[in-house]
Specification:
By secondary structure, this protein is an alpha+beta fold. It is about 55% helix and about 15% strand.
Length: about 500
């Protein structure tokens, strides 16, 4: 029980820690995204505020005269602008983007030219959308800028290209960003940690509360309380899990009851079969002992009679064992029907002819009838023959002397209907639903239907099931019982 509780709490803390790390990860992502957004926001503001610097530069001085840089005038105004805003970096470009002059503090220019596509985009754009271009001091990076065309005699002679966020501003911004992240991160870390613990402990305590209830029910079921079920109140927000367990428990309980029922029936079978096996064996043993003990006293006629009795008991024993093997194969699905089209009336005629001798010995009339032009059926000939034999054995066994057994074949909507009727005492209605059950032995003194292993009719039922058919029984109006079934027609 202690181990069980430890497992529950282990699951609880595992889920809580997972949520904690998830929130920390989201917090870190939030800080990074916020920092990047803040940087972009500052750059957009700078570009909006100082986006016309290059235009003022061109208006205040003529940077290019006859294609040449007016160094003195240009550098003076460039320096004046950089005194006001030290982060500015000023470049003069020719019409192809080649850098022809610049005023840049602190570091060297590493690019010879600037891509003019962002410049043209900047000059043509009327929106507040941020546009970045090449940073000549930092190859491979983009930076905000201001640009303006330079004209001489109405002809384009170059561009003024001003980087608005130079190295000093980048350094200051980077330091401020780190400080911002540290401040925000430190506060956010403790906030998220506290929130994650509180939310995780509360939320998952509620979640695992229902889980603990379910586990208790499962434990009861495991310990043998097969009536244990998870109520709606115990399911909570785990209704799917609770319903699944209830369905599983119902199926397990049903399977257990079926196994118990089968076990009881098997015990009945063992008792019945033991009786049926013991009877012919006892008879055989008794007559063999008599023959051994009274060899000189027994007449030839008596010896012949004793040997015939032993033979009959041996045949009965062999028949019973054969039935046991046959039914066990059918029950284990080891017999696969080899279906083929054939005329049922021809098979029935042969079987009835073979049983005429046995019927005459018992003074029973055995006949059969078939409708004209019966179509062919599609089934396993050998298995259908076994069905008819078992039904005839059963009918002759329970029909008294001077009685009658009849076989009738006729057309039906779904195939050919076969019925075997006798003039015996019939079967009580309350027992008709059970006579085909496996391992079932029915005893009823009023019907005089003798006890036995009950495998004959069970074999009939099993054979017809693998032919997708069913065996049925009813009492006749006059007297006796009628067994009937249908076989499917052959197609084509």
């Amino acid at each position: 029980m202690t181990t069980h509780k430890n497992e529950q709490f282990s699951l609880y803390w595992s889920i809580a820690l997972t949520l904690l790390f998830l929130l920390l990860g989201l917090g870190a992502g939030y800080m990074i995204i916020t920092s990047m957004a803040a940087t972009t926001y500052v750059q957009e503001i700078n570009q909006q505020l100082y986006g016309d610097v290059a235009e003022h530069l061109v208006k205040e001085t003529q940077p290019l005269k006859q294609g040449q840089v007016d160094t003195a005038a240009t550098h003076d105004i460039m320096h004046s602008m950089m005194v006001i805003n030290p982060s500015l970096e000023v470049y003069l470009l020719d019409p192809n983007g080649q850098i022809i002059d610049y005023v840049v503090p602190y570091s060297e220019v590493k690019l010879d030219r600037v891509d003019l596509e962002p410049v043209h985009q900047f000059l043509e754009s009327e929106s507040a959308h941020m546009i970045v271009g090449d940073d000549p001091k930092l190859p491979g990076t983009k930076n905000i800028f201001s640009a303006a065309p330079i004209y001489e005699n109405d002809e384009l002679s170059g561009y003024a290209y001003v980087i608005l966020a130079g190295a000093p501003q980048v350094a200051v911004t980077s330091d401020l960003r780190k400080h911002y992240i540290m401040c925000l991160g430190g506060r956010l870390f403790y906030l998220i940690l506290a929130a994650a613990l509180l939310i995780g402990l509360f939320a998952f305590w509620q979640l695992t509360k229902n889980l603990r209830r379910i586990v208790k029910v499962v434990k009861r079921f495991q310990e043998g309380d097969y009536e244990a079920r998870i109520s709606r109140q115990e399911q909570g927000n785990l209704a799917i899990l609770g319903n699944t367990f209830n369905e599983m428990a119902a199926k397990v309980t049903e399977s257990i009851e079926q196994l118990k029922s089968v076990d009881r029936l098997r015990q009945e079978l063992i008792a019945n079969v033991s009786h049926d096996l013991r009877t012919p064996l006892a008879i055989m043993q008794g007559y063999v002992e008599t023959l051994q003990m009274k060899q000189d006293e027994i007449t030839p006629e008596q010896r012949k009679k004793y040997l015939q009795t032993i033979m009959n008991s041996s045949e009965r024993l062999s028949h019973l064992i054969a039935q046991l093997f046959e039914y066990s194969k059918l029950e284990a699905d080891q017999i696969v029907p080899e279906k083929e089209p054939f005329l049922l009336q021809e098979l029935c005629q042969d079987i009835v002819f073979k049983y005429q001798v046995l019927a005459k010995e018992k003074a029973i009339t055995l006949d059969w009838q078939a409708s004209r032009d019966l179509p062919m059926v599609f089934a396993d000939i050998g298995l259908v023959e076994r069905v008819l034999q078992n039904l005839l054995d059963n009918a002759l066994k329970h029909t008294p002397a001077n009685g009658k057994v009849s076989v009738l074949l006729e057309n039906s909507e779904k195939g050919v209907r076969v019925s075997v009727a006798d003039s015996g005492p019939g079967i009580p209605v309350e027992q008709q639903a059970h006579i085909f059950e496996r391992y079932r032995q029915l005893e009823n003194k009023k019907t005089s239907r003798s006890a036995g292993s009950g495998l004959g009719l069970a074999i009939v039922k099993k054979i017809l099931e693998i032919h997708q058919s069913t065996i049925q029984v009813r009492n006749r109006e006059q007297s006796g019982a009628e067994f009937f079934f249908q076989l499917p027609l052959a197609v084509g």
